[in-house]
From TrEMBL, chains A, B, C, D, E, F:
Organism of this sequence: Alicyclobacillus vulcanalis
Protein's recorded name: 4-oxalomesaconate hydratase
Molecular function per GO: hydrolase activity, acting on carbon-nitrogen (but not peptide) bonds, in linear amides
Entry-linked Pfam families: PIG-L
Domain of life assignment: Bacteria
Amino acid sequence: MADKGCLMVISAHAADFVWRAGGAIALYSGRGWKVRVLCLTFGERGESASLWKAGKSLDEIKRTRREEAERAAEILGAEIRFLDVGDYPIEVTPALRDTLVQEFRQHQPDILLTHTFLDPYNADHPRTAELVRETRILAQAHGYPSEDPPIGAPQLYSFEPHQPEQCQFRIDLLLDITPVFEQKRKAMECMQAQEHLWAYYTDVAKRRGVQAGRNSGQKIVYAEAYQRVFPSVGGAFV
Amino acid sequence: MADKGCLMVISAHAADFVWRAGGAIALYSGRGWKVRVLCLTFGERGESASLWKAGKSLDEIKRTRREEAERAAEILGAEIRFLDVGDYPIEVTPALRDTLVQEFRQHQPDILLTHTFLDPYNADHPRTAELVRETRILAQAHGYPSEDPPIGAPQLYSFEPHQPEQCQFRIDLLLDITPVFEQKRKAMECMQAQEHLWAYYTDVAKRRGVQAGRNSGQKIVYAEAYQRVFPSVGGAFV
Amino acid sequence: MADKGCLMVISAHAADFVWRAGGAIALYSGRGWKVRVLCLTFGERGESASLWKAGKSLDEIKRTRREEAERAAEILGAEIRFLDVGDYPIEVTPALRDTLVQEFRQHQPDILLTHTFLDPYNADHPRTAELVRETRILAQAHGYPSEDPPIGAPQLYSFEPHQPEQCQFRIDLLLDITPVFEQKRKAMECMQAQEHLWAYYTDVAKRRGVQAGRNSGQKIVYAEAYQRVFPSVGGAFV
Amino acid sequence: MADKGCLMVISAHAADFVWRAGGAIALYSGRGWKVRVLCLTFGERGESASLWKAGKSLDEIKRTRREEAERAAEILGAEIRFLDVGDYPIEVTPALRDTLVQEFRQHQPDILLTHTFLDPYNADHPRTAELVRETRILAQAHGYPSEDPPIGAPQLYSFEPHQPEQCQFRIDLLLDITPVFEQKRKAMECMQAQEHLWAYYTDVAKRRGVQAGRNSGQKIVYAEAYQRVFPSVGGAFV
Amino acid sequence: MADKGCLMVISAHAADFVWRAGGAIALYSGRGWKVRVLCLTFGERGESASLWKAGKSLDEIKRTRREEAERAAEILGAEIRFLDVGDYPIEVTPALRDTLVQEFRQHQPDILLTHTFLDPYNADHPRTAELVRETRILAQAHGYPSEDPPIGAPQLYSFEPHQPEQCQFRIDLLLDITPVFEQKRKAMECMQAQEHLWAYYTDVAKRRGVQAGRNSGQKIVYAEAYQRVFPSVGGAFV
Amino acid sequence: MADKGCLMVISAHAADFVWRAGGAIALYSGRGWKVRVLCLTFGERGESASLWKAGKSLDEIKRTRREEAERAAEILGAEIRFLDVGDYPIEVTPALRDTLVQEFRQHQPDILLTHTFLDPYNADHPRTAELVRETRILAQAHGYPSEDPPIGAPQLYSFEPHQPEQCQFRIDLLLDITPVFEQKRKAMECMQAQEHLWAYYTDVAKRRGVQAGRNSGQKIVYAEAYQRVFPSVGGAFV
């Protein structure tokens, strides 16, 4: 299957990949790509307010978030790995950097999806984005120590943050996720602790769908928005 | 042939389309697309210094520039139309706007290529870009009077200006023009009055080719750079 | 009533003020302010696609759009005036400029609401915004001929465009319109020709409401987003 | 008194809060708010040139700067705490982050004032700004360990840097400090080592006062300029 | 004298050149350069509020402003020409464009000074800046009809607007005007109708002087700030 | 010789100073300035792909890169020091910061050249730029411990990155390196492992030369592009 390509999604917290890139994941796994999600943390401190209010312990919360994310990944057709480095704040260490480099070396991704480089509402998100941008470069270097060969030049996209207008988020790509939206919806529903976001992100997908239609003249119901870090390269206007 | 699509290039002066989009034109005409170039002017006042220095009259210069541009278009496989509205400065009139709207209505372009929206070295270029952006919108409106039906939502790209760093030019797409570069070179050589630019734009194409290679991991020798005005829309990361 | 203040909304087309500022209008008219809407055009060519498709004539369309806008203004508690200068494109003439200056002189607005200064999907919108920014300045000048006295320094806000991320729209103010949302909804429903936008802008109001809550810790259901052109001035952090 | 609200000012060095936010502090303390100043350092290395030139020791300089800042805070009506983490450079450690989080948790600020996010003349300032932006988020998280409850969504403002045009400082708010300017002047005069700045920042306050008048039509003599990090939220245009 | 070079200042209104570039003018005229000021208007409507309040007629105001500007130019050592095209608003016509082109052709300036390209407080200023940027290009074109030869590539600078932070004014050059400040002060004092600005712009010059000192380590008392439109070119870092 | 001034170049990897600032170095050393190059690393991991492919060891690679850089520095007339802190990634430690501060204190540079603050293709480059910007400030502080006196306010420039359009590189200065280009070419040819860059950077120098000519009207063949961090200060428009 990996012949077809590999999509990697680097998610600061356990649920980010679902709200922000669930459609992309379902789309590519459905096409036979390997899709691999790296969760740096479970979002245990920063994005589990209702569990804390319900009196859960840190361990319970991590277990709950892990189980939810695993179910969501399964629905979307993705592998998932939890690095469990601790959130709020994520500390970027040499060990964490090396883990990402070795992941990229081993899985040779064609496409990388992660957070935006600015987010005044969340410091873990831009830190993750910078970490990915840097480790992608390290993984390209012949001199970086590894048992696996250097990677090529995988594309890197930022997925849509919660408040895009405050994050200098520029939409470069509206990805049509209409064929897989039901999968994304089911994956979102795994996130029991964040039920208020199910409808919210369904509305986001609809609005991006309307915009995708207006920007293409095609009939599109649901879409996800992405910002490119590097130029597209190819033989056609796309 | 138009079944395959229509690419329109709107060029402020007679030669702009060659230096900036000659590869794209050759590529698409070679694929059986209709490619249509609109030259708002011959560049008779602003971009024909050597002919003025040689003592030519305005009419001679316009004829010369027209002939060169026609030969270049022929080499590239494009139709060409000259609006002859006078350059340095181009005055945007209601009549000029309407001409563009009717062109878009009649030819139903899928892709539009034109100048950047900022250029401190040339006031005709950004004015043309704004004209295209606006007339594309007018051509979409059902209420705009025309014998032809409204257009859809053609993509709009800015091609690379002469001094990109001073024009806030962001490269969104590196278009691989390796297979057609010889055609572009021959088309450039039609511009007798601007021989100093042949080598210059060959170098630009090489440098963009190197960057295309670095950004994709592919082997690319020559490329052209483009900036997108609207988001891409589709079912894949491109 | 004018003692309490005057809010003026300058709308390029007949319906813009409803989708984009209907909540603000209802809020301020409900507080006893004079709210005055200037529609430069009926949106007859550019924003009445369904009426054109239904075979209506230009005059019928203008009449229909006028009636809808008048009903919407009435529901929102605003005066409305149509300048009927023709849309797609709006041509900015000295006469149009003077009309706006005299409006500002006569009504002495405290707050002005209009479009954004960039909108790649609509050329009438930024042109209207620039017109308002300039005529506000002219109306301040003692030497500008008028029977009415110069205005002070009314605040100027851009309301939210259809695709904010493509318009460099920065949210400076989230206006809580929860108490008047039903009025805005009823006003939107006057726009028979644009029924697809009722739900769309209800969703926008909800999403802005969620963001208003997150940015303030208050319970807010519906909000409208605005961008400031000039700094706030006052004796408190607001 | 805290019923009325709490304003916290986070100052990289001992004197920053006086030059940049002294008016705001006097204004709010005069209204019965609790105003609390956190000085990360005494500015002992980086902003005490005249004391070093006079041959003072590090300890003497720290004592002098502390005494000046304490007097200034007293004049302005503020509490003050010195974290003494060492300046030039300030090193951001987990312990420093936690200290700020616990401060926010304990004092539950309604408004936060700090430095800008860019300052090519001072690396401690943007580092402090990022520290405040991040710790404000951490303090909001239910899962962050603390004996005090999470904070809401306090507004965050950057005060004016020394060379605003080089710091991308955008003025969002001109705060009228006319009623308290004499207090600010007296507080500035506590800074014996920086006498050249007394007149300088009196001039800045006057210029901002003139601008406040021009932007509002009100009579304002002295003002301070602030940039907002998050949107305003409320029921009125402000 | 013209052997030494020619500095041209294009001023939207009669007094702009004094407040914003008076130091530069005195400096260069003192060095034997030809300095030529073009005032597009007298600022009769937009910048003569006190004369209007005093009941003067349009003709009286224009005469007064002309006399003041002539005296100021004389003090600064500059030629001055009034185009009297009418302010608030300045209308850019083909005739006005041609006048500027012929001025540039005839006087062959080495340096051009004018307004900024953004100013939300004054629409005449950015319009003048765009006019100068465009006519400079036209004057370079061999094909533009004129009895005088094309110009080279004179540098173009924006001088400091009244509220620089709102005009995206970036300071690229701090010009030391200490040796000529008294001349600038005397020239400012010619502007009887704007006495409130004498002290204001003396303060601006002092503040820029302080910044010039900080940015260079030199002893500078008064300076003017400028923004470059084109790159510097030369054999040294400057 | 140091009387004439001191130019310091801070290079993340061993070869950066050659491609990006070789002309400036040759120009200033030829004028009798002290030119001092600090290489933070040998570029051993990140910029020595061909040596890794040839099976060299880390130590061999470092030795090779050192020898090449030493030869290049000699050709250009510069001193060179290698800090050998390890590349890909460079870790910024307090010790590294102090080393730079002491270098600046000891050599009292008048001009500093380094990388850009953004580079999505290389994380070491912006980190080095931030390091230089900060340590320059530290070296200015009287309270920073050192045996050498504080520095003044040396200018700081970014040299041109490999893909300037992706790095927000704005050209503020085109430095004419025509008289020393042969030296730069020879220095480039010392970099045996990067032969593909010799022609590439010769082309860059030519293109910048063409632009330098267009922006000045002078005859310039080769140039290097630089972006300024602080305003120029002086008595002339430059």
